[in-house]
Structures are given as C-alpha cells and as structure tokens.
C-alpha cells in the first residue's frame, strides 16, 4: 500500500478523490416528471387519468398559476379602459382671459358650465398659454369664471354659435373604475405573496408539494422505456451476487412456476457493500434482465420539513409500482430513513423520518405473493438499520457486494474499455494486478483518467503508460511542481528509502512497486507496496511487518540525521490504527486476550462499552507492539546501512524508481513467491 510523506505542517492527510463519472448505463434513470420523487424506466405507457374540470381542489401550481396571471391582466385591462376610454380625458387648465379670446375668435365648439367652472372644446387646437417653448397644444380645456367678471360671455357665445351643453363634455371615472384602481395595489401584493408562497412550497416539496392548500398526493406521469437498459452483460466481477439475484429474475419472468410449488420470492433484498461496488447497477440489471419496470429513489428524497410528506410519497410509490407489477422498487442509501428507532441519533425532531420508515414497513408487510413487487435497497451501513426492517417478510435476504478479485477486475476493465481504443501494449490483466482492492467505480474512473491523458498527449489509443500515469494520479494524487532545498530532498529520499528497504527485507511483506520523492498531492514522497494477489485475512506476522515498514521512514531519519520530523504524520496514524486493531479488535495480544473492545471503523465509539482499566490495557499493549516494531526497524536499517545509503543515493538522483530499479539500487534480489489460491464454488454450484 502507498506510504506517503506529507508536507511538514500539522494538517490532516488528503483523502483520495471519489470515482469519476460512471458509464451512462450505470447512471440513475432520469426523472422525467419533476413532481415525483423517484425515477422510473421500463414503465409501459398507460392512458393518462382524466382529471375533473373546474377550479376546485385547492391551489395547484401547475394549474392555477395561469389563472392568477389572467386575473391580473383583466384588472390591468379594466384600469386602462377606465383611464383612457371612460375616464377623464386630458384637459388643460387655461386662464379665463384665454377662454374669452377663443370665444371672440369663434374657435370654441361647445362648453359645459357648473357654477363658476367652465369646461369645453375648441374647434382648432391652440398652443397652451405660457408654454411657447414646448409647442404643446390643446383642444379640451377648463377654466374658472371670476366672481367679479361683468361681461356678456353667454351672449357672445350664442352669437358665435357655441353649443352650450347640459352635461359634462368629458365625464370623470365611474365608481367601478375608482374601486378597481384603489384595489389594484392590494391585488398586486396578494398575487405576489401567493406566487412567493407557491415557489417556496415547490422548493420544500422537491418540485411537487401540492401548493398552499392542495394535498401531497399526485399521480405521476408514465415514463417511456429506455432504448437500452442495463442487463447482467453490463455487470462484471461479482458473479456470486448475480447467482443470488438470478432467482428473482426467474420469478419476475415466470411467477406461476413458483406459485405452483407454494414458494414465494423474497419480498426485499438488501445489497450491502462499500461505495462504488455496483449496487445500483445490480438493481438496474435485475430489472433489465427481467424486463420489468424499475423505480429508483434515494431515501433522502422522501424526507421533507413538513411531517407526513415522506409517508405520502412512499404510499404513492408503492401504489404506482403495484399498477405496473411485476416491477422493482430500488431505494438507495436506505440507512437515511432506516436507522434504528429509539437510538440517540433519532431523538429531537425526527418524526418525519420515523413516519416515513413506518410507512415503508407497512407497505412491505402488506405485500402478498401475487403482487409481484420486489423491493431492492442498498446501504453501506447495514449495522445501523432498524431490526423491524431486517426481519423475514420485509428484507428477507442480504447480499454482500464486495470489491472484485483479480478475475473480477479484469472483467470490469473489459466492460469499461469496450468503447475505449487500446494500444497494442495495453494489458488489461497487468492493470488489474496493479489495482488490488479497487471497486468497479474506481476502475471506471481509472479508465476514464487514462483516456483523458491519452487525449491530452494527442494519442490515437490508450497505452500502458497512460494507465500507469492514471493509476499514479489516482493513488498518489496530482504531481506538484514544488522546489525543495537539497537538504530537504536528501532527508525525504532517506525517509522513503527506509520505507522501501524494510518492505524489501521483511519476510512476507508486500513487494515495493514504486518509490518517488516527487511531491504528489500533499505528500513530499511516496512509497507504493501492493500484494502479489488479493488478500482477505491477515495474520499477526504480516501486520507487524506493516507496522515495521510504516515506521521505516522515521527510523531512517533518526538513524541518519538524528532527528524526527513531521513527515511521519500519516505513517503514525496508520501505525496507531493497526496496533490498536490488533489489541482491541482481533485478539492478537496475550494480555488483553480474545476480546473485541474497540468498535469497528465507522461505528459510533459510544456503541461499545468497556471498563477504563481494559481501555488502558489496550493502550499499553498497542504501545508495546509499536515500540517493539520501531526497535526492530532501527536494528534492521542499522544492519543494512550500506543498502539504505545506496538506495537513497540513487533515489535522490533519479527521483522516481520503479520496482525493478528500486530492488537493483538496494542490491536485493527480487524473489517472487508463488501464491496458491483456492476457488470456492458459488452457493448455486454443486
């Protein structure tokens, strides 16, 4: 495994990035309808249900939004009509003298008077008095007759032929128009408030919450089948899991054969395994192989702020699956809602999660064998699931999806390189041997990185150099252009040479594959050691060798320079983890005995209790093991000081050494020990 020398700063070691973009047949089915919290593929087309006409049923964002805008347009239209048609036309207030001048000139057409107020219209437009610079004219006017005026204006108007009206020349707005204009700001505010609330409701409910007053039940639209669905041909490296799921495929294809024998298919199958092992792809492959509808949803998509939404979505999902039975429901990351109830993590405002879990339990328990709906769930934390979820009748079967072995990695690489042009020197088997422990997603990412490097290097095909560079980038991190002082580079070369030399000298240790002092990621140097074949169990001797090899960098620095630097940070983390596991989990300490005291990785440290004296004994035994291994590392390097100096000198000169060059620089013959393997038959083989 890689042994990295981090940069001299008290920070955590960088974690390896996740897998890259998966193959398009492995991706989750698309969500065609934004109102449904699941995705579907292979669903047969059905005639859409007729909806009741009218405006009842509460506010529906998709149906009533246009009504709001229509109402708003009507209000604006009426306001415009009241202002420009029946409303007050534009009248200009003019002086009384200007009015009398127009009367004398015979330019007044008609007038209306009420008290001292006079309104009227001109025959020909005239310029507004006092606004000669604007060139503004008018025909409608209004003016006030002074009380002291003593003229014969009425006689003059009759003589000039002016028509005196008994009603206003231009009427003001009516009561309805005034009412609409006064209510318009209120209507706009109410409409804006409704729009904002609908938008917030849709955001909270994942695109289909039903609106302000409507319910949460929705009838999802049917989804057309995909052109190409995933099958077992797209799944490689996990043949034993395929055998476990093959009978489910057979049941979905021919359920009558099982009913005649009185047998029923498992109602639920729980896929467990590390991230990236292909659990989602397996579920899709089962549905594609059986050619049945497939409904996929992440457990987190059922949880909302509003209590009851998740339970309603679960009911609708199962109802929809029953309509298209036989079908498959796939719930990813079910531990999000399937955690054990009553635990400390579930206290304090998690009623929505528990109601959703209760609804899933009810739906699965209510299945009958004739419905033909199979629930497949995936998780990498099966230890925290609720016992009621795991009982027979719900998830009857658990299938562990482990990282692939050598043959499985070869098969997976062949699947992911089907559309990648390979050069003549590309050896898929050699790549598989260099990637022990990698999952299917990580192998897909490796192939993608190699293809990207080939494009960057302007090649027509991917060769072994691209695969090796991609593996180096994935395992070690991106190479950095860091200028280091000579003394720092020399110390780093001895540090990495200490790791490498102890890996070469320890019997049964993993062979050293590469040593480099070129900075990668946050590490100043890296030593890569991988086993000849996949290992599934480790004995005490091997684990001690791992500790000795990890302490080789610190031991070399102390032996040569007489100092200890911060470059051993990640090494000490690895050493502490292994030593504590040997004592507290695997029973490799005679003082503590065969007890499991410390929790497994990723588990709650408070979930397992031990007396303080027992925990102190674990710490003392772990310290004893590390001290013994460090003393052995110092003694071994002291006895082979010439080999250490030779390896460090060559490494300082060339910066990177592969397996052959590293063993040659240390003057050690590389001995390959044949590993005997036994192929156990799968549970379905006899």
Automatic annotation (TrEMBL):
InterPro entries: AAA+_ATPase, AAA_lid_3, ATPase_AAA_core, ATPase_AAA_CS, FtsH, P-loop_NTPase, Pept_M41_FtsH_extracell, Peptidase_M41. Gene3D superfamilies: 1.10.8.60, 3.30.720.210, P-loop containing nucleotide triphosphate hydrolases, Peptidase M41. GO terms for biological process: protein catabolic process; proteolysis. Its main location: membrane. It is a multi-pass membrane protein. PROSITE patterns: AAA. Its EC number is 3.4.24.-. Residues 21-52 have a biased composition (Basic and acidic residues). Residues 1-57 are annotated as: Disordered. GO terms for cellular component: plasma membrane. ATP binds at residues 273-280. Zn(2+) binds at residues 495, 499, 571. It is an enzyme of class 3 (hydrolase). CDD domains: RecA-like_FtsH. Its cofactor is Zn(2+). The active site is at 496. Homohexamer. NCBIfam families: FtsH_fam. Acts as a processive, ATP-dependent zinc metallopeptidase for both cytoplasmic and membrane proteins. Plays a role in the quality control of integral membrane proteins. This is ATP-dependent zinc metalloprotease FtsH. It comes from Actinomadura litoris. The lineage of its organism: Bacteria, Bacillati, Actinomycetota, Actinomycetes, Streptosporangiales.
